[in-house]
Design a protein that fits this description.
There is one protein chain. This protein is of the alpha+beta class. The chain has two domains: about 5-190, BirA Bifunctional Protein, domain 2; about 200-240, SH3 type barrels. The chain has five helices and twelve strands. The strands form two sheets. It has a seven-stranded mixed beta sheet, sandwiched between helices. Strands 11-10-9-8-12 form a five-stranded antiparallel beta sheet. Helix 2 packs across helix 4 and helix 2 (about 75-90) packs across helix 5.
């Protein structure tokens, strides 16, 4: 992937929505990146809202032509996107960031970034993916409705250029995409920095809470939790209770 078109948008409802519109209208090219200074209706996993202060963070969607990939590689792409954000943070701090399954990025018990990948699938052909990134860079004042946000600036004390950081993230994503053909290595890296790995965590399923030990994530994206016996869960079947 060569990212040749980095498009800066002053204001948009959602960069993922905008990018998907370009795909659907036939105007998209592999590697197109859309950066927004302000997003009015950002979305995260499970239709949750993503809130970001204007001009302070990375709000980015990258279009990927996935027509040469198999449908079972979808979670591998999710892992690569998350590992790319971790690598970005690691370039600026020695503080340890973790991947909270399925693809949030955490520092300690606070959320620093979220990833939302949406796909265009026709029949059995995976044609495009839109990889959306919301990465807290400079924001220090967050809405009270957000339970546990944190930004890179709060971790390091430094201020950054969100546009340059977004371009760097694009380069890291581009560099890491070849790992799609080394899925076992990607999974091992993902599990090495899995949030709460080998620790007890509380989850909610169908209104009921339970606790278990976070063990690992499988290559098809299921979380393995030890609760008496080992159980696996798809994304959306359970939610974290922090």
């Amino acid at each position: 992937m060569i990212i040749e078109r980095f498009i800066e948008l002053l204001r948009v409802d959602s960069t993922n929505n905008y990018a998907m519109q370009q795909v659907q209208s036939g105007n998209a090219m592999h590697g197109d990146a859309y950066f927004a200074f302000e997003q009015t209706a950002g979305r995260g996993q499970m239709e949750k809202q993503w809130s970001s202060a204007s001009g302070e963070n990375i709000i980015l969607s990258v279009i990927l032509n996935t027509s040469t990939l198999q449908l079972q590689q979808q979670f591998a792409l999710n892992m690569i996107a998350a590992l790319s954000v971790i690598e970005l943070f690691n370039n600026y701090t020695t503080e340890k960031f973790k991947i909270k399954w399925p693809n949030d990025i955490y520092w300690r018990d606070r959320k620093a970034a979220g990833i939302l990948i949406e796909n265009v699938i026709r029949g059995k052909s995976w044609q495009f993916a839109v990889a959306g990134f919301g990465v807290n860079i400079n924001q220090t004042d967050f809405p009270g409705s957000l339970k546990n946000p944190v930004s890179l600036k709060q971790v390091t004390g430094a201020t950054y250029d969100p546009v340059l950081m977004a371009k760097e993230l694009c380069r890291l994503l581009e560099k890491n995409l070849h790992l799609l053909h080394h899925a076992d290595d990607v999974l091992n890296k993902y599990n090495t920095i899995l949030y709460r790995k080998d620790e007890q965590a509380t989850f909610r399923q169908k209104g009921m809470t339970f606790t278990g030990i976070v063990k690992s994530v499988t290559n098809d994206g299921k979380l393995v939790v030890q609760d008496g016996s080992e159980k696996t869960f798809l994304s959306g079947e359970i939610e974290w209770v922090l």
